[in-house]
Structures are given as structure tokens and as C-alpha cells.
Amino acid sequence: MADSNGSTDWDERFASGSYPRDPEPSSVLRAYEPSIPNGRALDLATGTGRNAVFLAEAGYDVDALDASREGLRITRERAAERGVADRIETVHADATEYAFPTERYALVTVSFYHTVDRFSDLAAALVDGGYLFVEGHLRSSRSTPSGPSDDRYRFAANELLRAGLGLSVRYYDETTQERPDDRRRATARLLACRAHGPRQSYPEGPTEGDRG
After folding, report:
1. Which of 11, 107, 154, 203 has a CA 20 to 30 Å removed from the CA of 95?
2. 137, part of any domain
3. Where is this region: Disordered (predicted)?
4. Positive or negative torsion for Cα 133, 137, 142, 144
């Protein structure tokens, strides 16, 4: 969630409670997770552990990476509260510069952190058959107060899809979501697999009710 230049700002946001302490993982990630191979997972820019704690509860061993020490502290605290502290290893690092290991992860997740320039590194970090899940804010012609004010940190139409085409795309959408706080959010979501060949296996997809 934070990079090195903004880590102090994010430390303050996490400490003050202005960012949710216990954010929900994406409904798409929740729906597809049972079909994704077990193993080690990386939650890049974990924030307060949006994906990391969920994946640890699902049985993954998780590397939770962020530049914010406060976010990582909260992630560890939440993991302890859920009884999965032994499944999460926090990594204090700048996601823009971090040297990802190759062929290590069954699953890499990135939520609301703009990192298209690291896609090739994230793909190389997957084992064969491993999955990449990315969700992020979209540029929209409608007002979308939720998310960054600068379009540099939002995906253009189909930008996330094009970035994922080096993998085998399993799911993609671009949607607008109305939120209870009236902060409308435009979001792109991608699930892709490091797989090759004309015949592949496919995970069981979410039902229509799970896609929101």
C-alpha cells in the first residue's frame, strides 16, 4: 500500500485509523481462492493485511510486504488475533525496488497499489501454475471519490488487462461500485495464471452473486 516516499504518510494514516484496520479482501479473490493451488503467497503492498490475513486463514504461508512499519505492525496484530501469526512473515520493503524471488509463489496478490511496471517481475515470482490477482482504481468519466486524486495512480481502460496478457487470464472486469459512504469506486480486477499450452485447467468461477 505504501512506497518509500509515502511511507510516513501511510504510517500516520494507519496509526490514526483513517484507513480501515480490517479491510475485506476482494469478493473475486474470495470466490476463486479455493481453486488456487496451496503453497506460499505474496501480498504486495499489504497495507493492514487486506489479503495477507485472509490467505493465512485459508492455509497459505504468506509474505506480507509493505513500506509502512505501522501497516505491518497492524497486520501482525490482526494475524495474532485470528490465530495465524505463524503463517505470516512481514517484509518491510519498497515495492518499487524490491528484488522478488523467482518461481517461489503459488499466489501473488496486489490490491489498490499501482504497479504495472513490476508485472514481469511478479509473473516471474510465480511457480508454474501459480496465480496473480490484481485489483486497482480506474480512471472514470464519472466522479469516483474513492481512491487517488491523480490519474497516474489509476488504470486506464483495459490497461490492467493488457498488462496481464503475458499470463493466461482467468478473470477480468472493470466495474463501478456504489459504496455505503457515497464514495463511488471504479475498479479493475484481474486473475491470471502462469500456464502454457492450448489445453489448460481452469478454476471454478464465482457465481453471479459473488462478483460484487
Report:
1. 203
2. yes
3. 1-27, 193-212
4. positive
Give a yes or no: residue 122 inside a domain.
yes
Low pLDDT (below 50) residues in the chain:
2-5, 211
pLDDT at 168: 94
Q: State pTM to two decimals.
A: 0.85
CATH code where residue 147 lies: 3.40.50.150
Q: In this structure, what C-alpha cell is assigned to residue 184? A: 463511488
The structural domain count of the chain equals: 1
For residue 59, being part of any structural domain is answered with: yes
In-domain check, residue 18: yes
Q: What is the edge-to-edge ordering of all strands in the sheet holding 61-66?
A: 88-92, 61-66, 40-44, 105-111, 126-137, 185-193, 168-177
Q: Which range of residues forms the domain containing residue 177?
A: 7-200
